[in-house]
Amino acid sequence: MGFLAVPPPYDFALATERFRALGPDLANLWLQGKLYRVVAGREVSIEPAPGGVRVEPWDARIERAARVLLGLDLDLAGFYAFAEAEDPVLARLARRLRGFRPPLAPDPLEALVTSITAQQISLRAALAIRNRLVQRLGERVGRAWAFPRRERLAQAQVEELVAVGLSRRKAESILGLARSSLDLDQLRLLSDEEARARLMVVPGVGEWTADWFLARHLGRPRAWPAGDLGLRKAVSLLYRGGASVTSEEVRAMGERLSPFQNLSAHYLLLGLRVLS
Question: Using an 8 Å Cβ cutoff, are 224 and 257 in contact?
Fold first, then answer.
C-alpha cells in the first residue's frame, strides 16, 4: 500500500463527485467510499487518509496515474489566492467548494474517446454509452473495468461501436483516432496551441474536444473550453443572472481569468451542478 500526500485543503468526496454524479462510471468506479480504477492491468483502490490518500497496490506507474487522476499538480493554492483577489464569483465558489481538486484522465486515448462520445449529447447519455463501450471492448479487472486499449479499438468495426449507442460519425472518428499515427503521449511535450492544432487534424476532433483534452488530460492551467454548453450556462447563471451569453463572450471572459482558466472552469461547472 502506498500513500500520496495532498496539500490541504482537500475534500476527497468533492474531488471524486464527478465519478458518481451521473451514475456508476465503470472505468472510475466509486464503491463504499473508495475509487477503483485499472492501471496497467491491475485493480487499484484509492481512499481518503489523513493528509492525503491511500493507494493499493503501489508501484511507480500506479503512483504516476494516481497523481494525474487526483489532479495533484494543479495549483489550487494559487487559484484560491487569485479568486479572492480578482473575482467575487470564483471567491464564493472557492469558499463553498473548499478542497475540490478536479480529477484528470490519466490516459490520453480515454480522454479523447470520452470527449468524442459526449459531443452534442447529455453527460448522462454519454456516460451510458461509454460504459457500454467499456464493457464491450474493455476488460474487467476486479470491480472496475479497464478502458479499451488502442489496439482493440483499432481492430473494432464501425457496427460494433454503433451497437453501443455511438452515432456512425462518432464511431468513425474514434476508429480513425485509434488507427492514426498520432502519438498521443507526445502531445504533453507541445505547447497548448501546438497540441490543439495536432489534435484538430484528426477527423471528429474539433475545438471543444481539443480544449477538454488540454483541460482534463494535460491539466493545462489556461485551458478554457469556451464552447462548452455547461460552462456557458454556468457563466450565464453565476455572472449574468441567467441572461444569455455567447461562446465568444465566454471566450473573452477566459482572458481575464489567466492563468487559472482550467480551475475556474471546473469550479464553475461543479458549482452549477451542486450549488444551483
Answer: yes
CA distance 144 to 150: 18
Can you read off the three cell numbers belonging to residue 121? Answer: 449529447
Q: Which amino acid is at 110?
A: E
Cell 477527423 maps to which residue?
203
**C-alpha cell recorded at residue 218:** 494535460
Question: Quick one: cell of 244?
Answer: 444569455
Residue whose grid cell is 485509434: 178
pLDDT per residue as tens digits for the range 3-54: 999 999 999 999 999 999 999 999 999 999 999 999 999 999 999 999 999 9
Residue 90 has which C-alpha cell?
470564483
219 Cβ contact list (under 8 Å, min separation 6): 68, 71, 73, 74, 104, 262
Nearest-CA neighbor of 211 among 110, 203, 197?
197
| Alpha-carbon span 245 to 226, nearest angstrom | 11
**Tens digits of residue pLDDT in 135-185:** 999 999 999 999 999 999 999 999 999 999 999 999 999 999 999 999 999
What are the angstrom distances between the C-alpha of 113 and each of 88, 147, 259? 35, 10, 27
